[in-house]
Amino acid sequence: MITIKDLGFTYGETGGLKSISLNKEKGHMLPSDRYVLKNINMKLEEGRIYGLLGENGVGKTTLLTLLCGLKKPQTGSIDIDGHDPYDREPSFLSDQYYLSDEVAAVNMKATDYAVTYGKFWEGFDLEKFMEVMSVLENDPQQKMNKMSFGQLKKTYIAFALACNTKYLFMDEPTNGLDIPSKAQFRKAVTKYTREDSVILISTHQVRDLENIIDPIIILDKQDVLLNASIAEISEKLYFDYTSERNPDALYCEMIPGGNIQVYLNQTGEDSKVNIEALFNTVHQHKEMIKGIFNR
Amino acid sequence: MKNDIFNFSRFGKYFVSDIRTCRSNFGLSLLTIALLFPVATYFITTTFNFVVNSVWDGPDMGLRVFVFAVAMLCMIITMPVKCYGRITEKQYGSSWLMLPASRLEKFVSMFLLTCIIVPVAGIVLYLGMDALICALDHTCGKNLIAGGMELIRGMGDLQSLTMNFVDENVTIEDAAVVQEILKQVSSPWLYVDEIFAMTLPFLLGAVFFKSGKTVKTFLALFAISTAISIAATPLMTNWAMNIFNNMNDDPMAVMELFRNGFFKHLVLIDIISDTVSNLALMAGIWFRIKTLKH
Questions:
Q1: How many Å lie between the alpha carbon of A69 and the closest alpha carbon of chain B?
Q2: Three-state secondary-structure class, residue B52
Q3: Which residues pair with residue A255 across a beta bridge?
Q4: Where are the alpha helices (DSSP H) in chain A?
């Protein structure tokens, strides 16, 4: 279980640690516009694949790097099964994997990389690595610094899944993947991850992950607009795919063959959640959506 | 309860993987420096001698010692950046920080590799190549290993000969002081900690600066040594002037300096000052690893 409490983070010198500690002594926080993340509270539970959505610059990557311990929270705390990620204790690191959006092209064959570094993760399974590499149609004998960006990304995805960690953080994993690889990625994530794992995937390409992410977290500047499961979303919002336009719709977008409309679910009827439409609805009615889901 | 500070089995795994990474990043450069420098020196010198002087004559000991020193300097300057410089890059650094090994294990491995394993490998390879060249072409004379052994023997002989200089002007105590200084100069630690003292600033520069690592390290070293010189020159001059003024034209006063003074412990002072600066540099590297973020 991941518990995030009053998390705050800011970049830049003026908003750095020094100013925060000075302001803490004075008993007040920094002006809110300096924060990338501010007073973020969240609980991430086992057995879920969370989709982390948000516009550019709202702090998705920052949140992921804070969760895996690459950055230190400036205010608040993160607790992952009793560990502070920034301590970077080996016992904690061996149960998590962070797949960065930019991956390193090391001067090694993919198999050698897996053999050399896989042994640091207790649950690492070389056979699984080879299997996922084969699912993703990637050559494990190729040198990583000779791979294209997509091939390199697939190698790291295979490695991340083969590590069998409880916590898996992926930043834009489908960036650079071709169309068949995106489908193979979805298949691999659902097939090769532990049942009790907590997977957090940040993405702009919601359609790439539409059928695998649940719950959905939508970040806004310094705020969490939504953190709800697909079932909760479908209980509270109705996604209508008919051609007739409803004047009460919170959001409406023309699609080939009709409209996609989102309105409050008054009847309790089930509908298929369209994440792109959901994202736009949430952004157009921030306070209203927060009110509905925080009730 | 798992040991999150230092676990020998995990350290062993990490150290092996670190050696592999270092080999892929610096292996070729190490071979180039250690093998190409002596070979190039040999070919350039013999060709020059043959063309200009019409004699077949290999590089002499003095030139080979100079090239060896230059090669080792090149290795020490480039190796930390090639082996660990990438940890300040987001892509590589994130993977490195997230690798399940403790900070202490990563630090110890970094120290062992850059200060001991790679320099020793470089020296062994270089001396091996030099010995091979000297074995194949006797015009080069003694190889560097034989030359070094001779130097050590010479120091030993000089120590034993010291007592021969005892006369009415030089007492047994004076000879013993000179003997002690020679013994200290022969101490291997004097040279080992010099390797650390040369490597550690470049390792700190490699993990501290995000770009222009070698140039910035040189500039930082230049700035620090200039500042120390400016601060220390008046003090040292004053101290030296006091000594010379108090000698009152007595030649035995010079011997007194060695007998009881600063010079008797010069080597020890050098070792202590190097050790202190090495510890400070190691603390800087440790702090950088501890606070590195991406």
A1: 8
A2: helix
A3: A258
A4: 17-25, 60-68, 90-93, 110-118, 126-135, 149-162, 179-191, 206-209, 230-236, 275-284, 286-293
Strands A216-220 and A223-228 turn out to be antiparallel
* Predicted confidence pLDDT, tens digits, chain B (294 residues): 678 999 999 999 999 999 999 998 999 999 999 999 999 999 999 999 999 999 999 999 999 999 999 999 999 999 999 999 999 999 899 999 999 999 999 999 999 999 999 999 999 999 999 999 999 999 998 999 999 888 888 877 777 777 777 777 777 777 777 777 777 777 777 788 888 999 999 999 999 999 999 999 999 999 999 999 999 999 989 888 887 777 766 666 666 666 666 677 777 888 899 999 999 999 999 999 999 999
Closest-CA residue of A relative to B27 is A107
Q: Do B98 and A97 touch (CB under 8 A)?
A: yes
Domain made up of A2-226: CATH architecture:
3-Layer(aba) Sandwich (3.40)
Q: Taking the domains of chain A in order of start, what are their residue ranges? A: 2-226, 229-293
Query: For residue B21, which residues of chain A lie inside 8 Å, CB to CB?
Result: 106, 116
Backbone φ, ψ for residue A163 (5° rounding): -70, -20
pTM of the model: 0.87
Q: How far is CA A130 from CA A110, A133, A135, A149, A179, in A?
A: 10, 5, 9, 19, 21
Distances (CA, A) of A163 to A117, B152, B230: 10, 54, 56
B4 and A89 in contact by Cβ < 8 A?
Answer: yes
- ipTM of the complex model: 0.87
